[in-house]
Amino acid sequence: MDAIRVLYAEDEPFLARIVHESLESRGFSVRLVSDGAAAMDAFREFKPHICVLDVMMPFKDGFSLATEIKDTNPAMPIIFLTAKVQTEDLLKGFASGGNDYLRKPFSMEELIVRIHNLLQITSNNQGSKEKNKPNIIKLGKYDFIPELLELHFEGNKKKLSQRETRLLELLTSDMSRPVLRKNILLDVWGDDSFYNSRNLDVYISKLRDYFSEDPSIEIVTKKGVGYHFLIR
Known about the structure:
- By secondary structure, this protein is of the alpha/beta class.
- It contains 8 helices and 12 strands.
- It has helices at about 15-25, 35-45, 60-70, 85-95, 110-130, 160-170, 180-190, 195-210; strands at about 5-10, 30-35, 50-55, 80, 100-105, 135-140, 140-145, 150-155, 155-160, 180, 215-220, 225-230.
- The strands form 3 sheets. A 5-stranded parallel sheet has the order 2-1-3-4-5, with helices on both faces.
- A hairpin with a 4-residue loop joins strand 7 (about 140-145) and strand 8.
């Protein structure tokens, strides 16, 4: 497993050396900068997993630096190191994008626990977002999003009905073979009556129209069998 990369911004040389050496001795990879102005270049080059920032630094303070970092990467976890404990300072820190505070003086054990905890929280939040993202099915130049009942093409969004969505799901679930007409009718309409069979023909025509902008896509009628969704 790769070492956790920590961008550490601190202008107190003695404290900076202790923290830097202590973190590296515990398996972290640390990039140390001594002023806020140099930190953004280090951030872009080093690509840290987490930032540990002193609040009071020359040229650019930790709050301003955090704002700039969050503009670049909103998900980047940030811990502030500070002697300031006034409520307005805490609020300013959180408003600038800070996720946690550690008051000076602090123990290395506490800093390491907070780093691991914050990375775990960030990872869980990211995993939750990924889990909740709707499934996007690429169909030629189109994006089909069944959960949202949508078909996207070059920035344009087409809202589909429930039946159109289910029909398209059936047609595209296994494009190696046609879908039986009877199976479509039973699944989408609940029976294979003549009336519903005519409805199916109308829906197929509508889907063909929706995909007309991409000539590589074809919904082929297999007589006496059903329909085959093809991307050539």
